[in-house]
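Last lecture ended with a question: if I hand you only a sequence, what can you say about the shape of the protein? Today we answer it with a concrete record. The protein is Oxygen sensor histidine kinase NreB. Below, first the input exactly as provided, then the predicted structure, then a couple of comments.
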Amino acid sequence: MTAAPSPTLLRRPLRLGPRGRWWFDVLLVAGLALPLLPAGWSVGLLAVGVALLELLPLLWRRRHPVAVFWAVTAAHALQVLVQDEPSLGQTAWPVAVYSVARYAAAPHGWAALAVSAVAALTAALDWTVGSPEPRVTVLTNAFLLGAVAATAWALGTLGRTRQAYVDALVERSERVEREAAQQVALAAADERARIAREMHDVVAHGLSVIVVQADGARYAARTDPDVAARTLETVASTGREALTEMRRMLGLLRAEDATGDGGLPALRPQPGLGDLDALVAEARTAGARVEARLPDPAAAGEVPDGVGLTAYRVVQEALTNVRKHAGPDVSVRVDVELTGVGRGRAVVLRVEDDGRGASADDDGRGLGLLGMRERVAVHGGTVEAGPRPGGGFAVSARIPA
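The predicted structure:
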């Protein structure tokens, strides 16, 4: 079952789409041009035409703000040449200044503000021709026009910076969400790899014991039925334990006692150094001659659980490979010891046999040795595995504890 996608940490604010923005600008231009209809009879068609030249470029103010600003500027310059009084078309100027400050880069906004200052003074001079107090009128008109343009520029700049800030927040939240999803995916991949290693160890070890015991029971059934019965009991017990570990790792086993459904044994903790003696005893039961030197149980209990499990799995895989590849009548030696103190403390182990060594037929995958190296590498340790000079095969590892 796939998990539902998590909501974005910061949603973008509601905005008009491309079609909505276009119609907004159409209505804006229409609203500004509408008063020209009744005024056309009094001001003349030329003034109305100039006003339309000032207003119509606003339809493209979002996509081409700089070009629209200069087009409006040119139309206003034309108005200065043909008119000496204000016009309704001049309402396009603050809209154009806002647009260039809002939708263009900051240098274009500053240029529009500077041009606005010059245009305000020019318009004030043009409108005050013949005024009884020209100096006061010019200053007043220039200040008012400049204030309108400066306000439009400030609002546009504020909108642009706010938009950039919101976009940065949204981009950051989306990046954090993507990184979180990647971390979850990596963790899931690591967990799948860990389960695959555990499954390999459990299945390979359990099946190798079952195969060896089943072969022994088959031969013993002809001569000693009691031995065959005990051997088959060991096969059944090993199979149940392997099945229990597999189901526990996959999260499919509910807590049951020994008398639960199927007669399966109850759940038990992950194995560690303290369980190596049982592992060696199981190998001996399977017919191998095993000589073991194991750490004291009290000292083994001081080793972290992860390190203990890794050491157990390495020894388990090594004994499994002995049964699979070393051949018959093999002697095995298992040495596990705790060395060093403090940060230099480590579990050092070695499993060696006198079997076929490099001449053994491999099963073609090498997943066991790969799993060993991956397990030990997690704890910063090292593994060496290969044929012995005098014959046989050896696996040695050092795991910091």
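Comments.
1. Residues 1-10, 252-267 have pLDDT under 50 and may be disordered.
2. The chain has two domains: 18-177, 273-401.
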